[in-house]
Specification:
By secondary structure, the protein is of the alpha+beta class. Helix content is 33%, strand content 22%. Strands 2-1-5-6-8-7-4-3 form an eight-stranded mixed β-sheet, with helices on both faces. The longest helix is centred in the N-terminal third of the chain and has 49 residues, at 5-53.
Length: 251
């Protein structure tokens, strides 16, 4: 005898309800875990900031900061700080696996926020290098970098500070660009490949592209031999979008 359709429909409805309930519980669990991991990560960075804040700007203080954090993690390369943005983080460098800290905290534990890192093909002593960081909704990492989309912000916050093993460096922001990652074989300039030690022609090509595609004109024209620092994060103005802040090192 065939089972009544209502019984079959009822069982399907109960099964669907159970499946939705499981999905809900799993989703809540994942969200809770991400929030917890984010809280733990933020607390850990606060502890590291206390170490950074204690460092003086002289050579001895800079060296002490580097030695202290490098002892905690040998992947530590330097510290980046930008007033008015919340960007105040260690910077990591892993040449054999450049994106190792894409989803890892300073202590190498899993973290959706990741930790800012130097991109492939360069070091912080190269003529041109990129520091990557996530555009987090809560404003952490490079989540406030897009404030440089407004020229008024660049004018009031023109400097980026970077602590390496020996010096407290200063960089002057000269361009802010909305761009995207190009597809394979797609024509166009790839800023993310213009890193390392550049020829004068490569340097000119990079800085010209940055200035011509900047959201505003700062009037600053980098000269060959000046180190270029680019900060790169995701942007949602287009598919595979990126927001890039470019700065030249000043003495």
């Amino acid at each position: 005898m065939a089972k009544p359709k209502k019984t079959i429909i009822g069982r399907l409805a109960r099964l669907l309800f159970v499946m939705l309930a499981i999905c809900f519980v799993v989703s809540v669990g994942m969200i809770s875990k991400n929030l917890y991991d984010g809280h733990v990560s933020a607390a850990a960075f606060d502890d590291l900031r206390q170490v950074q804040a204690a460092a003086t700007g002289d050579a001895a203080g800079v060296a002490d900061l580097y030695n202290d954090l490098h002892a905690k993690n040998a992947d530590y390369a330097g510290w980046i700080k930008i007033d008015g943005t919340g960007v105040d983080y260690p910077v990591m460098y892993t040449p054999s696996a450049p994106e190792y800290y894409l989803r890892r905290a300073f202590d190498q534990s899993n973290s959706m926020n990741g930790t800012p890192f130097i991109g492939e093909g360069s070091t912080d002593t190269s003529e041109s290098f990129i520091i990557y960081g996530h555009d987090m909704d809560d404003g952490s990492m490079f989540g406030t970098l897009d404030r440089y989309a407004e020229q008024s912000f660049q004018q009031s916050h023109p400097r980026i500070v970077y602590y390496d093993a020996n010096d407290m460096r200063e960089y002057e922001v000269f361009a802010a660009v909305q761009t995207r990652i190009l597809g394979q074989g797609e024509p166009g300039f790839r800023y993310y490949n213009s890193v390392g030690d550049l020829t004068p022609e490569q340097f000119a090509e990079l800085t010209t592209w940055l200035r011509q595609n900047s959201l505003y004109d700062t009037g600053i024209i980098p000269q060959s031999g000046e180190q270029i620092l680019m900060l790169s994060t995701c942007s949602y103005h287009t598919e595979n979008g990126r927001f890039v802040v470019a700065a030249r090192r000043v003495k």
